[in-house]
Each structure stands twice: as structure tokens, then as C-alpha cells.
Write a structure and sequence with these properties.
6 helices; disordered N terminus; about 120 residues; mainly alpha
Length: about 120
């Protein structure tokens, strides 16, 4: 049993390492950077400065195509966890923060096509 657990742990770590070789951005980074945006994305109002700081940080980190694709996928995944998310607020968030990104923020965006 202990041997099987060690093997499984090594397998999981190997998969995580291989999966992270292409993209430097993790979904944990995306989620923590955008956590201050949750209330704005569901209720509107003024965008909190920590939210824009997170948007700016992520934009700065997503410099390669694999990074942008991973960020896109993580954004879509995180959006599913925000209760009452307003898609129009999410789509306009980068602009509200003065950040330009090369793809639309939308659940219908095909992240594999993001360059």
C-alpha cells in the first residue's frame, strides 16, 4: 500500500512538472490574482484597485502563446466558480483597468486559438 501511494505521488508530481513546462502561469496564480475582482464581476460598481493590480500582473506574466492560452483556460475555469458572474463585466474588466489583451474575455473564446 505504501509503495502504491509513493508511486502515485511520483506520477502526479511528474504530470504536474510536465504540464507546467510550456506555460509559466498556473491556475492558482490566476485565481489568486483575480480574487479581488469577484465582487465587482458579480455586482458591478467601481473596480477595486487590487483587482486591477491582479489584472495588470497577469497581463505582464502572459508573454508567450502557451502562457496566454493557459491564462485563458484558467480564466474560464475560474469564472465558473464566481456566483452570479456578469459576462459583460468580465469582458470589460481589462479595459477598465487600462490593460489591453489580445483575445476577448468570454466563455466562448477558444483558448487553443489564442496567440
Amino acid at each position: 500500500m505504501a509503495l502504491a501511494l509513493r508511486f502515485f505521488t511520483c506520477l502526479v508530481l511528474t504530470v504536474c512538472i510536465v504540464a507546467s513546462v510550456d506555460a509559466a502561469i498556473s491556475c492558482g496564480t490566476v485565481a489568486s490574482s483575480l480574487a479581488p475582482c469577484a465582487t465587482y464581476l458579480s455586482k458591478g460598481g467601481d473596480v477595486p484597485p487590487p483587482c486591477c493590480a491582479g489584472v495588470t500582473k497577469l497581463n505582464g506574466m502572459a508573454q508567450t502563446t502557451p502562457d496566454r492560452q493557459e491564462a485563458c483556460k484558467c480564466l474560464q475555469s475560474a469564472a465558473k466558480g464566481v456566483a452570479g458572474l456578469d459576462p459583460s463585466l468580465a469582458a470589460g474588466l481589462p479595459g477598465k483597468c487600462g490593460v489591453s489583451i489580445p483575445y476577448p474575455i468570454s466563455m466562448s473564446t477558444n483558448c487553443d486559438n489564442v496567440k
